[in-house]
């Protein structure tokens, strides 16, 4: 099969936003405890943070990290996680049927974020709590001093405010599983009142209203219409969440990003419908703050039940295949391709829980397959996202028909004089020959060409072998006389850098 593209820097979509490369740390399973934080581990620093995980987080190129949940936040009292550690309450975490020791709270996480070099993105509890607690948390985090909450933070060791800009107004409030689940009008009003109060403290905040927790929710669309009707002038972003599962039909699995793109386009329609109905010139954009492959139905470890309320149980510890990594790379291509409306995104999650980074308690930290396309895209996508002209054969899975076999995005950094093409072959069994017209970039040479693929697309990394399948040089990539050609193997993700 063959596909053609044209890369021309005159046709642009928008800037490469660093926030597209965000991730998510929730108090869930072993993401925090024995994930980012494990005092006594040989690699722990003086604050108990695992330096091996910090290093991998930096290598992954993560930019913003959403915290502390997720479903967890809807039952969370942030005050439990501040002050002397030995006096912090131990609580039941109803979302994940676990025990929360509160050893890590907002101050520890802010410290971890600074060490990791990431922007902290906070979520407030609009499940069991409301406006006042959100305002208290904002005062605690962002006011430098002179008020009770800010002085409390100073007394807890942080002299300056954290300057948290992005705030999620609750989490998945459309989901019946959410503690304090609300209908769209109830939530929309609460989100609007909370946003109004938060903006009285700081009008410059970037606020995220909860959108649907998946496009499959029966309320998707109507939820956005009602919530945005209540909040349109008060929020900057609306959230999107979406997970994909390989149910055994590889060709269908490779349609994941096509489905994500359809979701983005639908969500944009719902947002713009409200804008138009309100005759507003303001543009609300998307925070895609949970996305990933998640093999929900194969999950080995189930959420505990009954009298079992463990601390940091192994939950949602998915193992990822090369095919999953190709899908993750494609999802990131899709987020970038929609940079005009997707202004922020968070891979869910960062460590151990459906994560690119895994740890063994007391042992090593290692990379899942999904680590590679994320890290390379974050490192090399820069400047402006270009609008490509694509001619591609179509593919069909068991459910989804006629999606393009080639998924691609290119970025162009005028200052560096470099372009990067990220290309996915979504065909399960056939290679794709790529023929790209690149003359508009001037005379180009290939700086680097790597492909991530494997004969066995189901190969998975493990603690014992995380390095035998890595992105490798693609020797078929050639640039000559305004044309770039490449062979993209079946089920593959590639990055081609040009200068
Ligand atoms: O990321 C895992 C969970 O998925 C989050 O807690 C929740 O928001 C979503 O349903």
UniProtKB/TrEMBL annotation:
Family label: Belongs to the glycosyl hydrolase 51 family.
Molecular function via GO: alpha-L-arabinofuranosidase activity
Keywords per UniProt: Carbohydrate metabolism, Glycosidase, Hydrolase
Catalytic activity: Hydrolysis of terminal non-reducing alpha-L-arabinofuranoside residues in alpha-L-arabinosides
Subunit structure: Homohexamer; trimer of dimers.
Secretion signal span: none
Protein name: non-reducing end alpha-L-arabinofuranosidase
UniProt xrefs under SUPFAM superfamilies: (Trans)glycosidases (SSF51445), Glycosyl hydrolase domain (SSF51011)
EC numbers on record: 3.2.1.55
Keyword Hydrolase applies: yes
Domain Alpha-L-arabinofuranosidase C-terminal: 289-492
Organism, as annotated: Pseudarthrobacter niigatensis
Single biological process term from Gene Ontology: L-arabinose metabolic process
């Amino acid at each position: 099969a063959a596909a053609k593209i044209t890369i021309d820097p005159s046709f642009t979509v928008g800037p490469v936003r660093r926030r597209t490369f965000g991730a998510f740390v929730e108090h869930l399973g072993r993401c925090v405890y024995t994930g980012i934080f494990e005092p006594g581990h040989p690699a722990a620093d003086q604050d108990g943070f695992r330096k091996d995980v910090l290093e991998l987080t930096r290598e992954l190129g993560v930019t913003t990290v959403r915290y502390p949940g997720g479903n967890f936040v809807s039952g969370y009292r942030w005050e439990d996680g501040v002050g002397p550690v030995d006096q912090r309450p131990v609580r039941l975490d109803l979302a994940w049927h676990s025990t929360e020791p509160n050893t890590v709270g907002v101050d520890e996480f802010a410290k971890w974020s600074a060490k990791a070099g990431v922007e902290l993105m906070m979520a407030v509890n609009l499940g069991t709590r409301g406006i006042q607690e959100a305002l208290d948390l904002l005062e605690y985090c962002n006011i430098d001093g002179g008020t009770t909450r800010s002085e409390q933070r100073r007394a807890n060791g942080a002299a300056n405010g954290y300057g948290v800009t992005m705030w999620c107004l609750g989490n998945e409030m459309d989901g019946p599983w959410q503690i304090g689940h609300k209908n769209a009008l109830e939530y929309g009003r609460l989100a609007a009142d909370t946003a109004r109060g938060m903006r009285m403290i700081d009008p410059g905040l970037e606020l995220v209203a909860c959108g649907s927790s998946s496009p499959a929710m029966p309320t998707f669309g109507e939820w956005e219409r009602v919530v945005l009707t209540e909040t349109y002038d008060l929020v900057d972003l609306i959230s999107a969440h979406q997970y994909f599962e390989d149910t055994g039909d590889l060709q269908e699995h490779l349609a994941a990003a096509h489905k994500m793109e359809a979701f983005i386009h639908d969500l944009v329609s719902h947002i713009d419908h409200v804008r138009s109905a309100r005759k507003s010139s303001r543009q609300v954009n998307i925070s895609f703050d949970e996305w990933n492959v998640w093999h929900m139905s194969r999950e080995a470890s189930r959420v505990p039940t009954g009298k079992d309320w463990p601390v940091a149980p192994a939950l949602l510890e998915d193992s990822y295949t090369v095919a999953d990594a190709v899908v993750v790379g494609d999802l990131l291509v899709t987020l970038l391709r929609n940079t005009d409306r997707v202004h922020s995104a968070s891979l869910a999650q960062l460590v151990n829980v459906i994560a690119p980074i895994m740890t063994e308690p007391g042992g090593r930290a290692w990379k899942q397959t999904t680590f590679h396309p994320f890290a390379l895209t974050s490192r090399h996508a820069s400047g402006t996202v270009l609008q490509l002209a694509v001619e591609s054969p179509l593919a069909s899975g068991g459910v989804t028909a006629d999606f393009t076999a080639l998924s691609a995005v290119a970025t162009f950094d005028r200052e560096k004089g470099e372009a990067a093409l990220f290309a996915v072959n979504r065909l399960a069994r056939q290679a794709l020959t790529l023929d790209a017209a690149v003359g508009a970039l001037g005379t180009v040479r290939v700086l680097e060409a790597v492909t991530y693929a494997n004969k066995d697309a189901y190969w998975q990394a493990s603690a014992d072998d995380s390095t035998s399948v890595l992105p490798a040089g693609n020797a078929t990539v050639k640039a000559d006389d305004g044309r770039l050609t490449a062979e993209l193997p079946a089920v593959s993700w590639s990055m081609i850098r040009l200068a």
